[in-house]
Amino acid sequence: MYLSCMKHLVKEEQYQKTKAIVVKFGEPGGTGELLQKKLLERSDKTYNWVYDYWLEDMYLNQRLALPVNSNPAMVFPKQNFKDRKDSLRFAAHLITGVLEYKERIDTRVLPVDFARGQLAGTPLCMKQYYRLFNTYRLPGHKRDTLVIHKPGSIEQEHIIVACKNQFFVLDLVVNKKKLKEMDILTQLEKIVKMAENSEERQPPFGLLTSDGRTEWAQAREVLIKDSVNRESLAVIEKCLCVLCLDNPSGMEVGDTSRALLMLHGGGHEKMGANRWYDKPMQFIVGEDGVCGTVCEHSPFEGIVLVACTEYLMKFMTGSPSKMGRATSVSELPTPARLLWKTTPHIQDLLKASAERLQRLVRDLDMDVHKFEVYGKEFIKKQKMSPDAYIQVALQLAFYRCNGRLVSTYESASIRRFHEGRVDNIRSATSEALAFVKAMTDEKDSEKMKQLWDAINAQTNYTITAITGLGIDNHLLGLREIAQELKMERPEIFTDETYVASNQFILSTSQVPTTVEMFCCYGPVVPNGYGCCYNPQSDHLLFSVTSFHGSTETCSAVFIKALDEGLVEMRDLCRKSNKPQSIN
Ligand code: COA
């Protein structure tokens, strides 16, 4: 399967070399057989043989900065706040919803999810939900750690509020009483006031979390020499979530600018330092109505994030704010501002982090596009899988921009398995290549046949991946078990084709929503695209990212090609109008 995924993506000579390596690896009594045996032994001893390997490979070993490169964001509908107080009311209501949702998690009353779409009806593993509010990604010199906090005393429950780059502790239980929404609002008002006080202002330490993981780990080592910093870090690392109260960014508020503000905060001069990127759940409430979440990705997938945020959105619109009615905790202590001890060396570190974040901000080329010509209902009417159709359209767009296809990643949920996260649907199939070529050269009847072949290949790969039979996790397992056995890295994993197969120039993911909001994330390689899409009945929403630094990419050009290709595909379907069944 690996060979057939890569054959048309590398030069013939390289392919022949890879084929020989793969055949040798798979020979009876060869390295592959030994590693497979060891992997089977591992699967007997673990709940999920790939989970740890996958988590390290996908996230914890990665050294790139979290904003843009790793943390996805969910952009909420633009809010129309009358004034700051109005935005704080929204924030208090949101946090009340978070606490209600957390209670559902803690009391285990969340209903089990069931698969939809392909192979609908199977129950899905719920473990990711139990990591929404009790996890923290701790930076390490070579590898980060996903810390999972055990449930502590409820009295220690707190959130961190970021305002003007200052961090405050908002205790959620005072005098053994849980804070009501009105209390939360009172505390937020106090925090905003305290943040105004320039005499007590602390340096923007959140910036350090926006840096490369090794840089941040090194900086953290310097910080923790001082007990004041140690204590502040400990409080942040144990919070349920971070609430960022943003000032107006001054940017024109559109879908793209809102997405940018979620992903990187607009850099240190805007809201980029008003964040703590290690914390998995970070809510942003901007005075200018720009709201959403930016999430550390290692504990959960976008689909779980959607479930949580949709709950919150429905809570916000469905249950009126309880400001007036609730009895409040009478004596509310002033929330504590987190203090930092700084030195000239730490100041230099902050400056360096700020500069690196700024570079990332300047480099990100983002385009959020609503394709309104049709949506998934049209595709379903053609008796085609909407997801497969969109993937084929993405291949067409890439081909038209670059004249070739490249290793593509589409996340496939494997929550059918205990602790399952994702595997990869390799969407750059040979059938997709034949189709995109046919779209330039062939007659309509030929194009339609190629489209069907491409859709069928994509749909079949999807089913393969979601049932745990994809190749990426398996190859990863074989590679990692060789490492554990201290074997020299088998040639199959040092081969040029393997390296290319893991350079995901096109990194894609479907994150559908049922309420108005959308997800976005950055590219995973310097010359690549990140493309998150949200298929709706009558339109398709795409968030496309790339880096200005690459001469090979341009988000607007990609969007234009995508737009045109989608229209051509519809016209082709309409002309042919002969639905066939999937193999
Ligand atoms: N004819 C008509 N309708 C069809 C069809 C066909 N041939 N094939 C599928 N459909 C319908 C489905 O029944 C489904 O209907 P629904 O909207 O009523 O549920 C709908 O079209 C969507 O199905 P499809 O487009 O095939 O996709 P899917 O929902 O099965 O999703 C994946 C495919 C790969 C996206 C999904 O399995 C998955 O893994 N999602 C998780 C991705 C993820 O983790 N993202 C976040 C990463 S951070």
From TrEMBL:
Transmembrane segments: none
Source taxon at top rank: Eukaryota
List of catalytic residues: H297 (proton acceptor)
EC number(s) from the headed UniProt entry: 2.3.1.6
InterPro entries tied to this protein: Carn_acyl_trans, CAT-like_dom_sf, Cho/carn_acyl_trans, Cho/carn_acyl_trans_2
Gene3D superfamilies assigned: Chloramphenicol acetyltransferase-like domain, Choline/Carnitine o-acyltransferase, domain 2
Broad EC category: transferase
Residue span(s) of domain Choline/carnitine acyltransferase: 2-563
Reactions catalysed, as given in the entry: choline + acetyl-CoA = acetylcholine + CoA
Entry's Gene Ontology molecular function annotations: choline O-acetyltransferase activity
Function: Catalyzes the reversible synthesis of acetylcholine (ACh) from acetyl CoA and choline at cholinergic synapses.
Family: Belongs to the carnitine/choline acetyltransferase family.
PANTHER family tied to this protein: CARNITINE O-ACYLTRANSFERASE, CHOLINE O-ACETYLTRANSFERASE
Protein name as catalogued: Choline O-acetyltransferase
Organism: Oncorhynchus kisutch (Coho salmon)
